[in-house]
Structures are given as structure tokens and as C-alpha cells.
Design brief:
It is a single chain. The chain folds into 2 domains: 53 residues, no CATH class; 172 residues, Alpha-Beta Complex (2-enoyl-CoA Hydratase, Chain A, domain 1). It contains 9 helices and 10 strands. It is flat and about 75 Å long. It is of the alpha/beta class. Helix 3 packs parallel to helix 5.
Length: 261
């Protein structure tokens, strides 16, 4: 057999090109990378200008679920340079005040729990009951979080198409992506004394409009007066209310089946 190394030519020295070059080199190939720019790295490249300041080709974020990327960074011993962002967002208000909005830090694959729960409900033929609370992930994770919303809706729709009930228990707070995600689907059951229910928060709306809101703004009672709430329950009575909802759902399904027969 010939001992001559096989050669590979890679066009483009961006992240994909450099990763491919690394893998091929590890396999024993002779690799040559062609890049038209003076620097490698593509959109994740950076360099020092004439004044010594670091310049980036663009602002980019890597998320914790990017396992393959982090495995590569460990191989080339650059993982120590990762700067993890704390999941919080600080607003500066008129007059110099501020408040900080935080979310839970759920690593992969916990972000897939709604889809996993939906598949489990279909497989076992049982209702899907979820508690909606939280919000603000879209601010921290941008496109990654927003892209996940359609996947969530597809998962919940699969349960509904299977003829199974979906119940969303809406508690305090339910804002942002949670409000237009889980909290917008199925039979909605609101916690009786809950507040902070909506897309944008109370203080954000007040700062944007320049007008104060009422004390009961975005509470369950306020939403009920606006016609957005049909079912409410005190926390201690929640399980009994859910039982009643499931009974109502079963009766409605039996009536529909009888009409179609």
C-alpha cells in the first residue's frame, strides 16, 4: 500500500472550514485551507487594529447546548476562553432606578421537556398538564429561544390531534415567551391571586407609555374583567378544579362522538 498521504483542499477558513481541517488532519490527511481574507475565522474572527483595539467581524453567542462546538474547543484547548453570560437583564428606569430580571438556567436537554412530556402523554393516552410560569428567555437567548417556540407549539398540537386534553395552569409570573408559548395553549386555568400575566411586564409598559398602570394591572382579576379569563382556582383547590375540567372534557368528547356516529 502507498504510504503517501491523501491531500484535501478546503475553500474557506471560517469555523466550518477550520473544524473540517482539524478533523481531516487527525485522520492523517494532508490539508490545505484557502481563505481570501487576511485572517481566518470567518464571522467569528477578530483582530487588533492599528491602535491596538480588538475588532470583531460580528457579535456572536454560543449556547450551552452546542456540545459539538465545545468538544472541539476542548480538543484545541480554547474552552478556558469562554465567557459565560449570567442569565439576567437589568433595566435602567427614569430617575436612575433599576431592576433586574432573572430566569432559571436550565441546561440541555431540559429545554426539551415540553416535547418529551407531549410524547409521553400520547404514548400513555393521558392528559398533558403543564404549569406556566417565568418569562424573559427571549431577551437572554434571542433567536435560539424564539426558534424553540414553534417546536413547543408543534409538540402540544400533536397531543390535541391525538384527542387528549391539554391544560395550562397559569401562575405568577407568566410573561414573554412563556405567555405566548405554553400559557397560550389548551384549556387555561388561572391561579386566583396571580399577577404579572402578559407579554411585557408592568414596569416596561409604564416606562414605554410614560403613564402609570392600575394596581390590579395584569392580575387574574384584571384579565377576567377584560374577558380573557374563564377558569380560576385557589392553589389549594387546583387539583379538584383540574378533575372537574377533565370530567367536562370527557363529556364533551362523548357528545361529539355520539353526533358523528
Amino acid at each position: 500500500m502507498s504510504s503517501e498521504k491523501k491531500s484535501v483542499l478546503i475553500l474557506g477558513g471560517g469555523l466550518a472550514g477550520l473544524a473540517a481541517a482539524k478533523r481531516l488532519t487527525d485522520k492523517g490527511f494532508q490539508v490545505k485551507v484557502l481563505e481570501k481574507r487576511e485572517i481566518f475565522g470567518g464571522k467569528v474572527s477578530s483582530w487588533k487594529d492599528e491602535e491596538g483595539d480588538w475588532i470583531e467581524s460580528g457579535t456572536h453567542c454560543f449556547f450551552g447546548a452546542y456540545k459539538v462546538l465545545y468538544d472541539l474547543m476542548k480538543e484545541i484547548k480554547t474552552d478556558h476562553a469562554v465567557l459565560w453570560k449570567e442569565h439576567k437583564l437589568t433595566y435602567t428606569l427614569a430617575g436612575g432606578g433599576h431592576f433586574t430580571f432573572k430566569t432559571w438556567d436550565l441546561p440541555s436537554p431540559l429545554h426539551l421537556l415540553p416535547a418529551i412530556a407531549s410524547k409521553a402523554a400520547i404514548k400513555q393516552g393521558v392528559p398533558l398538564i403543564v404549569q406556566a410560569t417565568g418569562g424573559g428567555a427571549r431577551m437572554h437567548e434571542g433567536c435560539s429561544s424564539m426558534v424553540g417556540l414553534p417546536k413547543l407549539h408543534v409538540a402540544i398540537s400533536s397531543v390535541e390531534r391525538a384527542g387528549l386534553p391539554v391544560i395550562s395552569i397559569i401562575t405568577d409570573p407568566t410573561l414573554g415567551g412563556v405567555a405566548i408559548g405554553i400559557a397560550s395553549r389548551g384549556i387555561k386555568l388561572f391561579e386566583h391571586n396571580a399577577g404579572n400575566i402578559g407579554f411585557s411586564g408592568k414596569r416596561v409598559i409604564e416606562q414605554y407609555t410614560g403613564k402609570p398602570t392600575t394596581r390590579d394591572f395584569q392580575t387574574t382579576w384584571w384579565l377576567q374583567q377584560k374577558g380573557f379569563v374563564e377558569r380560576t382556582s385557589l392553589p389549594q383547590n387546583m387539583k379538584f378544579k383540574i378533575t372537574d375540567i377533565l370530567k367536562e372534557y370527557r363529556i364533551e368528547q362523548e357528545q361529539l362522538e355520539a353526533q358523528e356516529a
